[in-house]
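Hi,

Apologies if this is the wrong queue. I'm a grad student, and the batch job for Olfactory receptor from Octodon degus produced an output file that my downstream script rejects. I'm not sure whether the problem is my script or the file. Here is the sequence I used:
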Amino acid sequence: MLGPSYNHTAENPATFFLVGIPGLQSSHLWLAVTLSAMYTIALLGNTLIVTVICMDSTLQEPMYCFLCILAAVDIVMASSVAPKMVSIFCTGDGSISFNGCFTQMYFVHAATAVETGLLLAMAFDRYVAICKPLHYKRILTPKVMLVMSMTIASRAVMFMSPLSWMLSHLPFCGSNVVPHSYCEHMAVAKLACADAMPSSLYSLIASSIIVGSDVAFIAASYIMILRTVFNLSSKNAQRKALSTCGSHVAVMALYYLPGMASIYVAWLGQDMVPLHTQVLLADLYLIIPPTLNPIIYGLRTKHIRERIQSLLIYCLFDQFTQGI
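Support response: The file is valid. Your script probably expects a header line. Output copied below for reference.
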């Protein structure tokens, strides 16, 4: 299934060179400024959410715990690619070691697999909270949450480890120039001197299974949530439930739409979609959700918004008193 074994030790390049965004080199400086701003927002916003949830004992409900893990995963996902992208766009230094390239690839794929699992867990949390409120604490116990979290992490490792292994064990005896701004799987696979179809096919099938099953369960959860919400007699309760679910749906749309578009364009639309558009789509897929998730949750979730405001006021007051 995986094809013949290769002795690639002497053939592989010590370094790959990332181009950035082919065809948009003249815009790299503006892209660097934009990306730096987005990465800063992602880093500060997600760190703030993790800090607030960990420090506040009143925010230890399952929804906030899943949100805390999501924020941590967003930091890992953005940090796997953004610093190197900024370096490429600012200085043109696109060199990355062979091992560093596949390490980056592994963290990107694993983080995205964990993120989609967390979005499913959060949809299930909202289903239980709205459709079975009297059984919420009995169903989502700390033990159940731990099992869910471990299952999500194990699934990511189980699906994504073979992908990096299959590709890293191919010979790379030709060009070492990657026409991308990070070590994206398909872009690196095209440089292999042997048939990379098994790893590429595995990537497509694994991604489709993970995302397809998660989206199906998420959709089922929200269909049942909407049925319950519209049967509520109180209009205020309806608005509150729809507001909470609306922010979750917005986060999921930001994650799944560009993600699936990026995967299938790389497979099916290579000749129809310009390369720079494909690369931009893949980049935004990894940067936009970590940037907007803390903004959406911070603005839409009342408890988190209040805790963040209290923390910022406390920090500013503390700095002011120390200055006096």
